[in-house]
Design brief:
This protein has 343 residues and is mainly beta. The chain is built from 2 helices and 26 strands. Strand 1, helix 2 and strand 2 form a beta-alpha-beta unit. It is globular, with a radius of gyration of 21 Å. The N terminus is likely disordered.
Length: 343
């Protein structure tokens, strides 16, 4: 394991050496030789602008609180061999200008700051529970490339909806997005997969105005009929489909494709997110070129950001040894197979 990761750390240092004050490594695996074994200790020792690379481990790094401007990079969330687990990530006072990427979050990411934070990027994570913008909330937030259950809340009185000037794009979302600052939030090119509630998007302040969601794919695999339409939500150039025997009510909005198979490259019929599936679009898919501006619907929209099924961070090379000779005689040849991914 340590041999594998040394390649990755070297690549990471090369990629970031001109961008940050320091690059800090953390690994809580038994026998690891990173700078820190405890992630919270590494955060406490870091300075504003530092990058913390967190090695994959079978041991969860626990609940962490970020109280300064940092970039936290995990290995990824769905690699079959290696994941970087944390329980909760809490954004506290002074954590504006923070980026979090490449983590398997077994519970929540949320804000615990009485003042509004700004310039937060949440990308390439798997978040089992919810992403909540509590208390002071956040202004200017990018949420992209994540596999996530819930963003915000359905209630206008909830503190989990305090976010403005937000872009929510290129995510796999299993439940819903809840919001109330509709005039400053963009929801585009996501895939909502079998939302557990009928509404993939809730406008908690629908009386004050309407949000328009664009280029999203919403699919179910159930025997019943779902109605995705909620008050204060319009859909533009979106697609719905029920892979099961049920149906989907027509979307309210314009240029939508109602109950049409998106023709993913592969779909195993399982309602949960699966890395076995390939959510790219087959040739002939009705979602190709039919989004706003002639782009594709769904998470692969041809933009500079590319959704990664395993949660690898874009721009950081990933190097893995996939096969190595178990035992060799002295002086014999060591056989190694190395796979690389430039992301």
């Amino acid at each position: 394991m340590k041999t594998k990761l040394s390649f990755l750390v070297t690549a990471l240092l090369f990629a970031y050496q001109v961008k940050a004050q320091n690059t800090i490594t953390v690994d809580n695996s038994v026998g690891a030789n990173a700078q820190y074994s405890d992630l919270q200790s590494a955060i406490s020792a870091a300075s504003n602008g530092d990058i913390i690379y967190v090695h994959p481990s079978e041991i969860n790094y626990g609940i962490i609180t970020i109280d300064k401007s940092l970039t936290l990079v995990g290995f990824g969330h769905s690699d079959p061999d290696s994941k970087t687990f944390v329980n909760d990530i809490i954004l506290a006072e002074n954590s504006s200008n923070t980026k979090i990427s490449g983590f398997y979050v077994t519970d929540d990411i949320y804000i615990n700051s009485s003042n509004m934070l700004s310039n937060i990027i949440i990308e390439n994570n798997l978040i089992v529970s919810y992403l909540g913008f509590d208390n002071g909330g956040v202004n200017n937030v990018i949420i992209r490339g994540n596999v996530i259950n819930q963003i915000g809340n359905t209630s206008s009185s909830s503190t989990q909806n305090n976010y403005t000037n937000a872009i929510i794009s290129n995510n796999m979302i299993s439940n819903y997005v809840g919001l109330k600052n509709h005039q400053s939030i963009t929801i585009k090119n996501n895939i909502f997969y079998t939302p557990s509630s009928s509404y993939p998007i809730y406008n908690a302040d629908s009386g004050a105005g309407t949000i328009t969601a664009q280029n999203n794919i919403i699919y179910y695999n159930v025997t019943s009929t779902y109605n995705p339409d909620a008050d204060g939500v319009l859909y533009e150039n979106c697609l719905t489909y029920n892979f099961g025997s049920g149906s989907v009510a027509p979307l309210i909005g314009s240029n939508n494709l109602d109950n049409q198979n998106p023709l993913f490259v592969s779909y195993d019929g399982v309602t949960n997110y699966s890395t076995v599936n390939d959510y790219n679009l087959q040739a002939g898919s009705p979602a190709i070129g039919t989004g706003v501006g002639g782009i594709d619907m769904g998470i692969y929209d041809g933009s500079s950001f590319t959704f990664n099924n395993l949660g690898y961070t874009n721009g950081i090379p990933t190097v893995k040894i996939t096969n190595i000779t178990d035992r060799i005689a002295p002086g014999a040849t060591l056989s190694v197979t190395i796979n690389t991914n430039a992301n």
